[in-house]
Amino acid sequence: MNTYLMEVAAQLPRLRSLLNWTQDDLARRVGISRPTLIAMEKDPERLTRPVAIAIFAVVQAEIRERGQRVGQIDFRDAENAVAALTSIGLSAKVATAIFPAVLNAIGKVGKDAAERAAYGFIPRMFSKPGTPVDAERLRTYVDASLRYISAEVEMIFGLPELDVVEFIRRMDAGETCDDALGATEDKSSGAPA
């Protein structure tokens, strides 16, 4: 039993949520059936090494691709920028994690209304009626959103960055995610692990 893989498998629903993916989306990308993914989410011991590597690879590729797509967004047009954010999967969950004002709205409205409010909130944050969009602030928001997603995914995998070699090393060692992060912190501080 590999405790590292079990911890990663237990976080698959959260991983999918961060990436704004359904079970079908992740299963299709990895090349497994949805029932297989559901079984792994229900019983983390079922996550196999080859499937874990495939999941890591598609997640790593997706985060890189989203970063590249952000480079193509015209941030001077807030409405188009919001549409682009949706297309790269920056969900309202990310917006609510970054902006407390939207978090407050969640307690007062349903989930769908909160998501609409979050996306409606984004363009208003970066322009006032009759004024041009503050493209630099909007770009900063998007960059912060991508960094947030990346940092959360790194935490799910217990890695300081999405490095496949380190992921495989941790799988081989069977470390827990907490052990893996602690060892990395010790190395970076110069303290013995």
Pick out its properties.
single chain; mainly alpha
Number of helices: 12
CATH-defined fold name of the largest domain: 434 Repressor (Amino-terminal Domain)
User: Per CATH, which architecture of the largest domain?
Assistant: Orthogonal Bundle
Return the CATH class of the largest domain.
Mainly Alpha
Q: Tally the beta strands.
A: 0
Mean pLDDT: 75
Helix-and-strand structural type: mainly alpha
User: Main β-sheet: number of strands, strand sense, barrel status?
Assistant: none
Rounded to the nearest angstrom, the radius of gyration is 19 Å
Shape: elongated
What share of residues are in beta strands?
Answer: under 5%
Distance between the termini: 23 Å
Helix and strand run: HHHHHHHHHHHH
The amount of helix comes to over 70%
Low-confidence stretches: 99-110, 183-193
Count of domain modules: 2
Report on this structure.
By secondary structure, this protein is mostly helical. The protein folds into 2 domains: 1-64 and 160-193, 434 Repressor (Amino-terminal Domain) (Orthogonal Bundle), CATH 1.10.260; 71-157. Helices cover 73% and strands 0% of the residues. The protein is built from 12 helices and no strands. It has helices at 3-10, 12-19, 23-30, 34-42, 49-70, 78-87, 92-98, 100-106, 111-126, 135-157, 164-173, 177-189. Helix 2 (12-19) runs antiparallel to helix 10 (135-157), helix 5 packs antiparallel against helix 10 and helix 7 crosses helix 8. The radius of gyration is 19 Å and the shape is elongated. It starts with a helix and ends with a helix. Mean pLDDT is 75; it is low at 99-110 and 183-193.
